[in-house]
Amino acid sequence: MASLSLLCKLVLLVAASASVARADLQYDFYNTSCPGVEKLVRDELALKFAADVTLPAALLRLHFHDCFVRGCDASIMLKSHNGTAEQDADPNSTVRGYEAIEGIKAKVEAACPLVVSCADIVAMAARDAVNFSQGPLYQVETGRRDGNVSLKEEALKFLPPADGNVTVLTEYFAVQNLTMKDMVVLSGAHTLGIAHCPSFSKRLYNYTGAGDQDPSLDAAYAKNLATVCTPENVASVQPLDPLSPKKFDQGYYQSVYNHQALLASDAALLNDSLTGAYVQLMNNASSLDTFFADFAIAMINMGRVGVLTGTDGEIRATCGIYVD
Q1: What pTM was computed for the model?
Q2: How far is CA 157 from CA 71, 172, 217, 218, in A?
Q3: Is the pLDDT of residue 23 over 70?
Q4: How far is Cα 301 from Cα 20, in angstroms, rounded to an integer?
Q5: Residue 217 burial (CB count, 10 A)
Q6: Which pick of 38, 74, 209, 277 has the fewest CB atoms within 10 Å?
């Protein structure tokens, strides 16, 4: 967990960034309407994380995928009988954590019926997932409301590709009013979690279409990947950060710097002078406080994407209702 001095710095940095925040999002939004809700969420998550050490990475990813499609409105939680919701899109096929959010929502509903949005619970859960994984603790702006539209085609359109280069990734982030700095910092979330073989197998077996391997991959790392991710074993997985896959730290950047990035989109960060410089900076152990501070700000920025507030959207009792 971050040191007290670092936490003070993060509070100041996040507070400074609030000057450009949406006026209708605010810290401690539920202080009067549902006091203690953030502690309730955190306590419930502590129990769930203790039972499933892979859940923090899952909830962080769920928040990312939610925000990048229709904005941070919990539309990823919505379901479709006809397979037309965001959950049904291929990039979301391995997203999980829905049941955990639903369980937390039920506890919150018992305390404060129809007050706290699913969207805010998802954002709080992502923040706590980072902190419980020994990452920074930062405040989350709240006041989001839930969307009631969820479209598969929008997920296919707006979620960044696993094989995108820096130019492509920057464009996807720019659509959400996020900067290149936000992109390279938020990529650091890959210090947690796994990826399934199909998302990177092309780098091992058919990089240019001629049955070759990505020459940028560290040879020993590629050999190890190939022993697990065989063409016949597409269901197998590998950690995005081979150094410390369950700890929120700089292991991801160190892996990228040493040409041991799992996804092509991660490896691509070294190919741009600006993002490459950040990777190099983060390869230095003394830069941990900088990463934590940068990540807190970038998460606040992402948490403002496309939010519904005021009388827009809704507050629903169940997050995962059907939309058809």
Answers
A1: 0.92
A2: 13, 9, 28, 32
A3: no
A4: 9
A5: 22
A6: 209
